[in-house]
Here is the input.
Amino acid sequence: IQLLERRGDAVHPRHILLRIERTGASDDSAKAYLLALRARVAAGESFATLAQKYSEDKETATIGGSLGTLELEQLPKDLYPVVSTMKAGEISEPTKLPVGSQYGFSIVWLKKRIPTHKASLDLDYKRIETVAANFKRQKDYAAWLEELRKKIYWQSRL
Here is the structure.
């Protein structure tokens, strides 16, 4: 990727894209690779360390592949049937998942399953803290916008 021009937050890039053909053989090799990683975890290696080293998901690789604490309904629809049948501590078989307009393969480690319960500070402190922080952030943002509306003249023309 080459950046030709930048104006504030707007950019004008260009790139060269090479598409790699997906074949049954490449799918089989990806599955075999993930099965080998799965076996290494079963043999005692750290799932997080292997995720950091081998995962191509840049958002989660740096944090050991963690997706955080999620409710089953929050999972992507293609991952739901896999995780819903797993027991705590299990690692899934390689699963084909959509990635944009392409697809990839993934293995999932279900660290633990938390039964449905009423929210409590003991069990859900981090989640409550996140919700409270987001609420405060939204409230402060709305107040800031209201303050700007009072100070700045603006007109919408259609």
